Amino acid sequence: MKGFPDLPPIWFAGFCLAAWLLARELPLVLAFGPVFWGLGLVLIAGGAGLIVWSALWFQAKRTTIEPHHAPRVLITEGPFRFSRNPIYLGLVAMLTGYVLWLGALSAALLPGLFISVLTLRFIQPEEERLIETFGLEARRYMQTTGRWL
Predict the structure, then answer these.
(1) pTM beyond cutoff 0.70
(2) Which residues of the chain have pLDDT under 50?
(3) Rounded to the nearest 5°, which phi and psi values hold at 77?
(4) Strand pairing partners for 89?
(5) What are the residues whose beta carbons fall under 8 Å from the beta carbon of 142, sequence distance 6 or more?
(6) If you ran DSSP here, which 8-state letter would residue 30 be given?
């Protein structure tokens, strides 16, 4: 993956493109309707709001938001009280909302696959870096706060 910008928003965009292509070319069943469109829009808006709220905490704490860089501060306030990964949770909510809005059964497994990619490529290495950097404080935080919720 040399030269590939390995960032969660790039992966998110790729999964959205895959959802769109599946819905367009291989929908299997168009099973959803207005209720799911509305729920999809709520998830998209809620996920975007969660991402913005989380990003504001990174800015307030003056630490990096980029997943491959070492943090200077362990953020445990704001949305980080409920989830160790609220930005990733927001991205998953947005993708799930988009899949619901598209209404194609063929795209329904993509949010689960996206969770796996986020966990393996970003979350596990970040957790290791947090433990290396903050030690016992990070371990306590991880024991009391869920990875997703």
Answers:
(1) yes
(2) none
(3) -100, 175
(4) none
(5) 84, 127, 130, 131
(6) B
What is the three-class DSSP state of 104? strand
Percent helix, strand, coil in the chain (nearest 5)? 70, 0, 30
State the average pLDDT for the chain. 95
Longest CA span, the chain: 50
Alpha-carbon separation of residue 24 from 29, 40, 82 (angstroms): 11, 18, 36
* Domain boundaries, given as residue ranges, for the chain: 8-144
CA distance 55 to 62: 11
Strand, helix or coil for residue 75 = coil
Token pair, residue 110, equals 């993509």
**Cβ-based neighbours of 6, under 8 Å, separated by 6 or more:** 68, 121
The residue assigned the tokens 């909302």 is 97
CA quadruple 51, 54, 58, 60: dihedral sign: positive
Q: How far apart are CA 6 and CA 13, in angstroms?
A: 12
- Give the CA count within 13 Å in the CB-facing half-sphere of 77: 8
Q: pLDDT tens for residues 7-26?
A: 999 999 999 999 999 999 99
